[in-house]
Amino acid sequence: MDSLPWLAGNVGLIMFLYCGAAWRSKSGYFRLLSTYVTKTRYLFELKEDDNACKKAQQTGTFYLFHHLAPLLQISERHYVAPRVSLLELEKLLEKCGQDTQRIEDSVLIGCSEQQEAWFALDLGLNSSSAVSASLQKSQMETELQGSFIELRKALFQMDVKDVPLLFTAQALLSWHDAHQFCSRSGQPTRKNMAGSKRVCPSSNIIYYPQMAPVVITLVSDGTRCLLARQSSFPKGMYSALAGFCDIGESVEEAVRREVAEEVGLEVESLQYSTSQHWPFPNCSLMIACHATVKPGQTEIQLNLKELEAAAWFSHDEVAAALRRKNPYIRQQNETFPFWVPPKLAIAHQLIKEWVEKQACSPPA
């Protein structure tokens, strides 16, 4: 009971600590900022202020890569991505005879709600900030008690919470590795501390990481959906149609063109679903849509330069493919079962949405 007067007199302080930072408006009153806004403002500060970013490294943690393959450890049959502190990273570099200045090659990839900054550093790519060669993969794996595994191979066995950060890290590390020279002057560019941009000291041109827009479309004729496969796909896997947007195209125009190019069908209507960052083969923004084709015009005319196969599938066939847990087992007739991309892929979400919508629709 003795604490009640204190609580009553300090409600404002409690709300401040609970909700995050406060911002003074023009009227002089304080407006409480949400945790998300506070975190976003903090990340913006780190991207714009090299000194603030360097300070954040002191209490931050690092995801490690080797030639764009993340360091992973096995935990309960899943891969997890461990993080190391700045002190642990410095000790590791010193033990391997490397200059700790190499840490300046790291890139900022996010932060926690408590404003612990997260960085990524590739120990396999040649350093741009220090004269040092690539660190040996086996040596690093022994010291770190993990393995550097290609992200595409490990993706569907990973802890879901790690995936967005590793996507961001791989995309940024890859972009910096490929953009070390100015396209106009030919001179070396310099990244800022956070890795959110590169600057050419000669021409003063600022380069920012870019993503390529890709449309991915699930085509339906009302009762069936169209799925296709490329020769590079795993055996038996079919997915939605996908392709890069051309210069000057809108999303709608890109969807219509891709469907016409790949399967020879004309889209009648389309609806946006969702989007996803996808780092393979390079940094892409996947823009997912549902599309319907004109009634009576469903004959597929396959573009063999783009696809290996395409077909219409019924609701029951697709629903069964979604439930299939082990699609890699070859059947007795030496064929692989029909299956769809795993849950982490945006194509899976499109297909699942279509199945659920069909299940809720009244019979014709």
Query: For the terminal residues, how far apart are their CA atoms?
Result: 67 Å
- Runs with pLDDT <50, length 5+? 3-9, 11-19, 129-133
Q: Report strand %.
A: 15-25%
Share of helix among residues? 25-40%
Secondary-structure content class = alpha+beta
Helix count, per DSSP?
Answer: 11
How many strand elements?
18
Shape: globular
> Whole-number radius of gyration?
25 Å
Mean pLDDT: 87
How would you characterize the largest beta sheet? 7 strands, mixed
Report the order of strands and helices: HHEEHHEEEEHEEHEHHEEEEEEHEEEHH
Explain what the structure shows:
The protein is of the alpha+beta class. Helices cover 31% and strands 25% of the residues. It contains 11 helices and 18 strands. The chain has helices spanning 4-9, 11-19, 35-48, 50-59, 86-95, 137-144, 151-154, 163-178, 251-263, 315-323, 346-360; strands spanning 22-24, 30-32, 61-66, 69-75, 78-80, 84-85, 107-111, 117-122, 147-148, 190-191, 198-199, 206-207, 212-220, 224-229, 241-244, 267-278, 284-293, 309-314. Strands 3, 4, 5, 6, 7, 8 and 9 form a 7-stranded mixed sheet that branches. Strands 13, 14, 15, 16, 17 and 18 form a 6-stranded mixed sheet that branches. Strands 10-11-12 form a 3-stranded antiparallel sheet, with no helix packed on it. β7 (107-111) and β8 (117-122) form a beta hairpin. α3 packs across α4. The longest helix has 16 residues, at 163-178. 27% of the residues are buried. Mean pLDDT is 87; it is low at 3-9, 11-19 and 129-133.
